[in-house]
Amino acid sequence: MTTSETAPGSASAPGTALRDLPPVRREDRGLPVLGRMLDYARDPVGLFASQWEHYGPVSPLRLPGRRAVMLLGPDACGAALQNRDKAFANGPAWTELVGPFFRRGLMLLDFEEHHAHRRIMQEAFTRSRLEGYAAGMHPAIESGLAAWEPAPGFRVYRALKDLTLDVAADIFMGGAEDSTPREMRRVNRAFIACVQSAGGVVRADVPLTRWGRGFRGRRLLEDFLRHYLPARRAHPGDDLFSQLCAVEGDDGRRFGDDDVVNHMIFLMMAAHDTSTTTLTTMMCHLGQHPEWQQRCREEALALGPRPGLDELDTMTSVDLVMRESLRLQPPVPVVVRRAVKDTEVLGRRIPAGTAVVVAVQFSHLMPEHWTEPERFDPERFSDERREDRSHRHAWEPFGAGVHKCLGMFFAGAEVKAVMHHLLRGFSWSVPEDYVPRMNNHSLPFPADGQPVDLVRR
Ligand code: HEM
C-alpha cells in the first residue's frame, strides 16, 4: 500500500487526501525520558479525553524513545483492531511493554504464525471443553471462599486474586499435586512480578527493579510448569495444560514442550488478572447498588449449588452487571500495536515503526455512544436498549479482529461461577461515594485493595 492511497478496509473514504499527524503541543510533551507514561499512570481517562479534545481520533503521543500515536473512538480503534491491510503487528508492541516475560504467548505472535498457533489452541476452548472447565471450577471456589474471614473493610482484591489463582491451578494445571500452599503463593507472586514488569523504568535484569523481579518470576514459572509437563503428557486429564499438550489443529499439528510452557504462562496471566479485576469491579458496583445485588442473588439462589455451563448462562442479570463493569473499568484499557509498514487511519499518515496505543476504554465512555456514560446502568445492555450496538466497536473489552480474546467465554463462565458462590454465601456493601483509586502502572487494580463490608449469609 502506498501512503498516498486509502488502505483497503481502512476507515477513510476513498480518495481522501492523507494528512500527517499534527505536531505535539508543548504542554503535551510530558517528561523528558518518559513522555506521557506518568500522565497515563495517574489518570488514563483524563489523558484520553485531553488527546481527543486537542487532536481528535488519531493523536500524536510522546512515549519513551519512540514516535507514537494514540487511537481514540470506535472508528480509529476498529481500523487498527481489524487490521485489514496487515499494517499493525502485536509482537514488537507488546514485547516492548511487557518485556520478555510473556514471550511467544499467543497474543505476541503475528500473522501466519499467530494463525497457525491460534488454530491449534482454539481446540482447547470449544464449548464441550468449556463445559468440563466450568464443572471443575466449583471445588476450588468453595474451598477458597470457605477460608475468607469476612469483616468490615475486607480487602477484596487480594482475596479474589488468590481465589482465581486457586481456580486456575485446578482448571489450567489439573491441580498442582505436589505443590504446597506456600509454593502456590510464590507462583502467585511470580505472576504478579511478570505482570507488574510492564510499568518498569529500568528495562534490564537488575535486582530490586520491576524487570529484575519479572525475570525471576518468569524463571520460577518455567520451572514450575516443566516440573509437571511429563506427567501431563503421559496421563492427560481434563485440565487446560493437558489439553494444550494433546490438541491438534485441523492440519494435525501439535505444540512442542516450549510452546506448551510459553502458552501456559501467557494464558495464566491473561486469565488471572483480567478475571480478578472484573470480579473486583463487579463487587464494587454490587456493593453500591443493593437492588442489583439482590436481583443477582435471586438468580444464583434459583440454581443448584454447582451449576454447569448451561445453567450459568441463565444468570442474565449477572451477565448485564459483568458487561457494565467491563465497560466502566476494562481490565485491559488499552491494547498496543506497532506499524510494520507505512499506513493510515482515518486519513492520517502513520509511518512504519510507529507505536500505536489503541485506547478502547475511551470508546466505552463516549456520550456519542452511551447515555450518561459515567453512570452504572447495566440495563443499557438489555435486549431493549443494546447501547453497545451503537457502533460495532463501541464496546471492546475483549478486543476485536484476529487477536480477539480467545478466553472470552471461559472468562464469562469463571466470573459467573465465582459470583454464584459469592452471592449465595455472602452479602456486602460499599459506600456510595467510594471511587477506587486505580494503580495503572500496568494492568489496573485498586491501590487500596478495595475494602468492602462483607458478611456471611
Ligand atoms: C474478563 C476477562 C478478560 C478480558 C477483559 C480479556 C481481554 C483481552 C483482550 C483485550 C485481548 C486482546 C489483546 C490484543 O488485541 O492485543 C485478549 C487476548 C487474549 N486473551 Fe483475554 N481477556 C480476559 C480473559 C481471558 C481468559 C480467561 C483467557 C484464557 C483462559 C484469555 C486468553 C486470551 C488469549 C489467549 C488472548 C490472545 C488472543 C490472540 O492473540 O489471538 N483471556 N484478552
From TrEMBL:
GO biological process, one term: sterol metabolic process
Gene3D superfamilies, per the entry: Cytochrome P450 (1.10.630.10)
Protein name according to UniProt: Cytochrome P450
UniProt cross-references to SUPFAM superfamilies, sorted A to Z: Cytochrome P450
Region named Disordered: 1-24
UniProtKB keywords: Heme, Iron, Metal-binding, Monooxygenase, Oxidoreductase
Keyword Metal-binding attached: yes
Species of origin: Rhynchospora breviuscula
A Pfam family: p450
Binding site for heme: 405
